[in-house]
Design goal:
Rossmann fold; 19% strand; five-stranded parallel sheet; 151 residues; alpha/beta
Protein backbone atom coordinates (compact mmCIF):
# COMPACT_ATOMS: atom_id res chain seq x y z
CA UNK A 1 0.00 0.00 0.00
CA UNK A 2 1.20 3.47 -0.85
CA UNK A 3 2.08 5.71 2.05
CA UNK A 4 1.49 9.44 1.92
CA UNK A 5 4.23 10.83 4.14
CA UNK A 6 3.98 14.34 2.67
CA UNK A 7 0.71 15.91 1.58
CA UNK A 8 0.55 19.24 -0.22
CA UNK A 9 -2.65 21.23 0.23
CA UNK A 10 -2.88 24.29 -2.04
CA UNK A 11 -5.52 26.77 -0.89
CA UNK A 12 -7.12 29.89 -2.25
CA UNK A 13 -9.05 30.29 1.04
CA UNK A 14 -12.37 29.57 -0.69
CA UNK A 15 -15.20 27.41 0.62
CA UNK A 16 -14.16 24.77 -1.93
CA UNK A 17 -10.62 24.75 -0.54
CA UNK A 18 -11.96 24.45 2.99
CA UNK A 19 -13.93 21.40 1.89
CA UNK A 20 -10.79 19.89 0.29
CA UNK A 21 -8.84 20.51 3.51
CA UNK A 22 -11.05 17.97 5.29
CA UNK A 23 -9.88 15.29 2.86
CA UNK A 24 -6.24 16.36 3.17
CA UNK A 25 -6.39 16.26 6.97
CA UNK A 26 -8.23 12.95 7.07
CA UNK A 27 -5.53 11.35 4.93
CA UNK A 28 -2.78 13.08 6.91
CA UNK A 29 -4.16 11.66 10.16
CA UNK A 30 -4.45 8.16 8.69
CA UNK A 31 -0.86 8.17 7.38
CA UNK A 32 0.70 10.48 10.01
CA UNK A 33 1.70 12.75 7.13
CA UNK A 34 3.38 16.11 7.18
CA UNK A 35 1.02 18.68 5.66
CA UNK A 36 2.27 21.53 3.50
CA UNK A 37 -0.32 24.28 3.14
CA UNK A 38 0.51 26.56 0.24
CA UNK A 39 -1.06 29.72 -1.12
CA UNK A 40 0.18 31.33 -4.32
CA UNK A 41 -0.42 35.01 -4.89
CA UNK A 42 -0.69 35.65 -8.58
CA UNK A 43 1.15 38.89 -9.34
CA UNK A 44 -0.65 41.54 -11.27
CA UNK A 45 1.31 43.84 -13.51
CA UNK A 46 0.34 47.26 -14.68
CA UNK A 47 2.55 49.72 -16.41
CA UNK A 48 3.60 52.71 -14.38
CA UNK A 49 2.92 55.01 -17.31
CA UNK A 50 -0.31 56.00 -15.60
CA UNK A 51 1.43 56.78 -12.31
CA UNK A 52 -0.32 53.94 -10.48
CA UNK A 53 1.56 52.11 -7.74
CA UNK A 54 0.02 48.89 -6.51
CA UNK A 55 2.84 47.88 -4.16
CA UNK A 56 0.81 48.79 -1.07
CA UNK A 57 -2.07 46.58 -2.25
CA UNK A 58 0.31 43.69 -2.93
CA UNK A 59 1.84 44.04 0.55
CA UNK A 60 -1.65 44.01 2.09
CA UNK A 61 -2.58 40.92 0.04
CA UNK A 62 0.57 39.19 1.28
CA UNK A 63 -0.12 40.16 4.91
CA UNK A 64 -3.72 38.99 4.67
CA UNK A 65 -2.72 35.68 3.04
CA UNK A 66 -0.03 35.13 5.70
CA UNK A 67 -2.61 35.63 8.48
CA UNK A 68 -5.00 33.17 6.84
CA UNK A 69 -2.22 30.61 6.32
CA UNK A 70 -1.11 30.99 9.94
CA UNK A 71 -4.71 30.38 11.09
CA UNK A 72 -4.94 27.21 8.99
CA UNK A 73 -1.55 25.99 10.27
CA UNK A 74 -2.53 26.66 13.89
CA UNK A 75 -5.74 24.71 13.40
CA UNK A 76 -3.85 21.76 11.89
CA UNK A 77 -1.26 21.80 14.70
CA UNK A 78 -4.09 21.29 17.19
CA UNK A 79 -4.62 17.85 15.61
CA UNK A 80 -0.97 16.96 16.40
CA UNK A 81 0.03 16.86 12.75
CA UNK A 82 3.29 18.29 11.46
CA UNK A 83 2.45 21.29 9.29
CA UNK A 84 4.31 23.89 7.27
CA UNK A 85 2.66 26.91 5.66
CA UNK A 86 4.09 28.49 2.56
CA UNK A 87 3.29 31.76 0.80
CA UNK A 88 4.64 32.18 -2.72
CA UNK A 89 4.12 34.74 -5.48
CA UNK A 90 3.86 33.47 -9.03
CA UNK A 91 1.70 31.53 -11.47
CA UNK A 92 -0.35 29.24 -9.19
CA UNK A 93 -0.10 25.94 -11.04
CA UNK A 94 3.60 26.44 -11.80
CA UNK A 95 4.48 27.23 -8.18
CA UNK A 96 2.41 24.32 -6.86
CA UNK A 97 4.24 21.91 -9.19
CA UNK A 98 7.66 23.40 -8.36
CA UNK A 99 6.97 23.13 -4.63
CA UNK A 100 5.70 19.56 -4.94
CA UNK A 101 8.92 18.60 -6.72
CA UNK A 102 11.15 20.50 -4.30
CA UNK A 103 9.60 18.87 -1.22
CA UNK A 104 9.06 15.51 -2.95
CA UNK A 105 5.46 15.34 -1.77
CA UNK A 106 3.56 12.09 -2.10
CA UNK A 107 0.10 13.53 -2.74
CA UNK A 108 -1.52 16.85 -3.64
CA UNK A 109 -5.08 17.40 -2.36
CA UNK A 110 -6.84 20.38 -3.88
CA UNK A 111 -10.24 21.80 -4.70
CA UNK A 112 -11.78 22.28 -8.09
CA UNK A 113 -14.13 25.17 -8.70
CA UNK A 114 -16.26 23.56 -11.37
CA UNK A 115 -15.93 26.31 -13.93
CA UNK A 116 -17.37 25.52 -17.31
CA UNK A 117 -17.98 27.12 -20.67
CA UNK A 118 -16.58 30.58 -21.31
CA UNK A 119 -15.37 31.05 -17.73
CA UNK A 120 -13.29 27.85 -17.95
CA UNK A 121 -11.97 28.82 -21.38
CA UNK A 122 -10.91 32.28 -20.19
CA UNK A 123 -9.61 31.40 -16.72
CA UNK A 124 -8.53 27.81 -17.22
CA UNK A 125 -8.24 25.52 -14.28
CA UNK A 126 -5.36 25.51 -11.86
CA UNK A 127 -6.41 22.04 -10.68
CA UNK A 128 -6.53 20.71 -14.24
CA UNK A 129 -3.03 22.02 -14.97
CA UNK A 130 -1.69 20.60 -11.71
CA UNK A 131 -3.20 17.18 -12.51
CA UNK A 132 -1.55 17.19 -15.94
CA UNK A 133 1.90 18.32 -14.75
CA UNK A 134 2.17 16.90 -11.24
CA UNK A 135 5.08 14.67 -10.27
CA UNK A 136 2.77 12.79 -7.86
CA UNK A 137 -0.89 11.75 -7.57
CA UNK A 138 -3.45 14.54 -7.23
CA UNK A 139 -6.74 14.14 -5.40
CA UNK A 140 -9.18 16.77 -6.63
CA UNK A 141 -12.22 17.57 -4.53
CA UNK A 142 -15.22 19.13 -6.22
CA UNK A 143 -17.34 21.75 -4.56
CA UNK A 144 -19.98 20.36 -2.22
CA UNK A 145 -23.35 20.05 -3.90
CA UNK A 146 -21.87 20.44 -7.37
CA UNK A 147 -23.66 18.24 -9.89
CA UNK A 148 -22.97 17.24 -13.45
CA UNK A 149 -25.68 17.30 -16.07
CA UNK A 150 -25.23 15.04 -19.05
CA UNK A 151 -25.34 17.01 -22.32
Amino acid sequence: MTEFGKILFPTDFSESAENASRYALSLAKKYASKVYVIHVIEPFTYTTEFGLDFSAQLKEMEASARRLLDDIAASIKKTNLDVESVLITGEPFVEIIKYARKEQVDLIVMATHGRSGIEHMLMGSVAEKVVRKSPCPVLTIKKSGQTFTMP
